[in-house]
């Protein structure tokens, strides 16, 4: 098992992880909890390596529909390009080389306002993921009908469901309103079923969560997002982002860079979440089928197959 685990880790991380597993370094805290420390190696040349999508992966149609986060040609500077994301970039590059598949990420936000801060944060998160070579698609909730049984065939409903099936992971960003999620955000989740026949649009996928606050920092929305993720059978990363007084985290509307997060610990935390999300998704994506293999469902299939066989025999 130890050998198998090490072999699944990117080669540049194996020496550090192997040494740590075979010769563990332990730190004991006041609570007598013993934790194991894994050391990673940082390589500056990897930190700023481009993992840009090819033209065939970033067609004009897809870019126009799902990538509003891409900066125009007039942009002279992008703080995302200056981030030191050594380990995640190295893992992403090796994963792409090994599988020939990029991580596919669906991003959802929860407001229809023209200057929606949840949307702005979602776009910033998308830029970080795009920088790490992910195929990122942002769903626009405008025009999505309220959940009901008569609109299942609605184009926006089908679009959302198809994007979830397509994805390897989700990023959810919701405002907090009256101490919880907005209706705009929850409506999107309500339209995604746990299963459609044999297809499971969310099961086994990774999830990163964030919220924006109009006032002081709160965690009600991210707590609700975490519950939703668990209910949708997703693996929610341990980290999360809650941005207080979101209107103070961006330049005033009309000012240069008014859609970009200003430097702060809140911005750094968002970077942490996206970096962690990429690492978890790379490690877990190959095992989605394994995680979804459940005893109860196997037994249910046996019963159905037995009934079909009996019906054919009669």
TrEMBL record:
Keywords: Flavoprotein, FMN, NADP, Nucleotide-binding, Oxidoreductase
InterPro entries linked: Arsenate-R_ArsH, Flavoprotein-like_sf, FMN_Rdtase-like_dom
Domain NADPH-dependent FMN reductase-like: 104-247
MF terms (GO), sorted A to Z: nucleotide binding; oxidoreductase activity, acting on NAD(P)H, quinone or similar compound as acceptor
Tree of life domain: Eukaryota
Required cofactor names: FMN
Subunit text: Homotetramer.
Entry protein name: NADPH-dependent FMN reductase-like domain-containing protein
